[in-house]
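Schema walk-through. Below, the input block comes first and the output block second. Nothing else is stored per chain. Lengths vary across the set, and this one has 144 residues.
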Amino acid sequence: MQQTYPAAEFLLVDDDPSISEFLTTYLSERGHPSNATIEGNKALDWLSENRCEVVVVGLNLPNVNGMSLIASVRAIDARLPIVVFTEKGCDEAQVRAAMRAGASGYVSKNLPVEQLYCVLARVLAAARYNARRVRLQRELLGAA
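--- output ---
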């Protein structure tokens, strides 16, 4: 029997509101309700009161360093997938630093939207698989 999941939620944190708005609409049209902000502090406030399955973070945010935002998200939820949203010609050292800060992976915002969606859908599927695995392990250990 195939288990069905509720619609995914993505939290998009990027300095370009037009990209965030477009991607939020695109994801919502595909059944994935999303929230977007350009401010890291608002994202952290939202995460402290709400849940999502994937966070997409740009590194060039106003008022907050992308690396510290990643670390703060990690402190809120150690298992939450964080995807870094990179610019064309991004600094490789900056991406490596983001991965050390706790990012799960990265994707270029310059990809065609269908490819970007495929990457995010894969991250979402992996997150759901891991959550299910952890839940089943807890159930099995609780039954023992």
